[in-house]
Amino acid sequence: MSAAAEAKVSPGRDFWLRRRGIQVRLFALSCLAFLAFPLSVVHDRNKALYVGLALFVLGYARVVVRNTPQLHANRAPVTVAVTLICGLAMVPQLRYDWLSGLAFFSLVMLLINCPLRWWPALVVGHTVVFVAIAVGWLRVSADSVVILILLIAITSGVQVAIYNQIDTSMQLLQARAELTQLAVARERLRIARDLHDILGQRLSAVTLKADLAARMVDSAPNRAVTEMAEVAEVARDALAEVRAAVSGYRKVSLAVEAQSAEALLQASGVVVSVRGTLDDLPEPIEECAAWLIREAATNIVRHAHARRCAIAVTRHEGRFILEVHDDGVGAGLTGAPPSGTGLTGLAERVELVGGDLCVGPRDGWFVLRAELPQTVAPMVRG
To answer: Structural domains in the chain?
Structure first.
């Protein structure tokens, strides 16, 4: 794993990386128990070889510790070279008994220390060098050469399997972390979109009714009191919906939103007509259509300065068609309408259920038209 990749490791993944690296460290150091046999041979020969074995053990341990928990970082190239030279220097006296052990320990050091991309060349080169020493220098039998090759193959195979398992585990952990981050981002987007749609309409209604009540305080105080009571009711409804949106349990009704949109538009002086089937829709489709009506009504009140509005829900060739017409300023546009947060949120909602959204002027009206499917997979809901 490169240093750049290590810098991007998430805290959770870094914990598991350290844990896996420590496991590798313990395994590699426990392999030093195999030095018991060379030590017994040294006891019967040159006692000075104890020093050589001690230096080899220290070098081997340093390579393992330096490269764990961050494996394959090439953190001890000099120590690897010096330790291998020290080990090879003892071959003339300890012969094949030591050469086979050295082949094992040297391969462990090389594969722990060196980057993954070097491994094929290292294993091949390591095998060639040790077979050449066994055949050309020590003159061992063919059986011993075969055993040596098998030892190198098994050692390299076990290490490759272990490190591949570690890398696979790290990739799985990284994928889980990315999925968690994606889920959090989607939830934040949902809350932001819901809050925009909820507060946009409710605050517009509060503003209209509060202005109306202020104008009627002197001329019609009873009507002003009624309007202010409705302002309080709208504010309470908005608060409840915000809490529901944040908690994720909010369900939007198309019929209720159509009624709310009609009341809001009428309060702002717009003549409204609502027609079509507002019930018996699949829940995801009904929710999407309800948000469309809410945002369309809010935009008409805020920006359109319309006098008339028509809302229609129909079925055509197996699809639900929702259209909102108004004769406001958007009806006179010659190009595409400006894309704001509201329209962007609507486009995302429609896309999530597999529908199509078209917004723009048509035949003297400004039209919001959405074609929604009859069914939608639950997993694509926003």
So the answer is: 3-180 (no CATH), 254-382 (3.30.565.10)
- Helices and strands (H and E) in the chain: how many: 12, 5
The amino acid present at 330, given as its one-letter code, is: G
Average pLDDT of span 226-253: 70
**Which two tokens mark 135?**
């055949």
Rounded CA gap, 307 and 216, in Å?
22
Alpha-carbon gap, residue 213 to 7, rounded angstroms: 60
What's the pLDDT tens digit per position in 108-126?
888 888 888 888 898 899 8
CB 138 within 8 A of CB 102: no
pTM: 0.44
pLDDT given for residue 173 in this prediction: 61
Enumerate residues 6+ apart whose C-beta is below 8 A from 120. Answer: none
Residues 302, 339 contacting (CB under 8 angstroms): no
Strand partners, 40: none
Residues in Cβ contact with 203 at an 8 Å cutoff, skipping those fewer than 6 apart: 238
φ, ψ (nearest 5 deg) of residue 259: -65, -45
Sequence-ordered list of residues with C-beta below 8 angstroms from that of 1, at least 6 positions apart, any chain: 70, 71, 72, 73, 170
